[in-house]
Amino acid sequence: HYYSGPLWAIFDEDAIERTGWELRYPYVADNGYFFKADTIEDLAIKIAKGNEFQRVPLEYLAETVSTWNGYVEAGTDPDFEREVDAPMNRIATPPFYALSIMIIWHDSYGGLRVNGKQQVVDMQGEVIPGLYAGGEAVGGFNKHGLGKGHVHGYIAGTHAAEESGS
């Protein structure tokens, strides 16, 4: 089966202390996007019951956290191939927390006017030397931004390098 639903950041009290986070309203309101429990198993139950969009089965949450903690002990993350110096911390100190991570598509319908080289042009249509823009910073495009951001970045970078002679 294919499941979709929110992504969850799972962390513990040590993470709160390490980062100095302040768990307070409105960031952690009782709204179905933030949960707290004394065990990972109880956290999974709260997520499943408390978020109307949750469709992924959570019976594997405790196993996933255990696997992660093993990776931390080993100092390597074979699932995501983290860099050697990437921070890795155990999830072991209650209470445990779950925070929904939203993937958001958004569009800009306004922005800077550019030419085909991604050079910004002024109100008279004249190129502003050395100024390039792309992605959601430019106007005239109303589709999702990842593809255009990559393409515009490539075009702008290529022409900026040519302009500077490097």
Description:
- The protein is of the alpha+beta class and 166 residues long.
- The chain has two domains: 7-101, Flavocytochrome C3, Chain A, domain 1, CATH 3.90.700.10; 119-164, no CATH class.
- It has helices at residues 13-19, 40-50, 61-74, 145-164; strands at 7-12, 34-37, 96-101, 119-121, 127-132.
- The longest helix is centred in the C-terminal third of the chain and has 20 residues, at 145-164.
- 12% of the residues are buried.
Short note summarizing the structure:
This protein has 166 residues and is of the alpha+beta class. It has helices at residues 13-19, 40-50, 61-74, 145-164; strands spanning 7-12, 34-37, 96-101, 119-121, 127-132.
Give the integer mean of the pLDDT values.
84
Class by helix and strand content? alpha+beta
How much is the radius of gyration in Å? 23 Å
Number of structurally distinct domains: 2
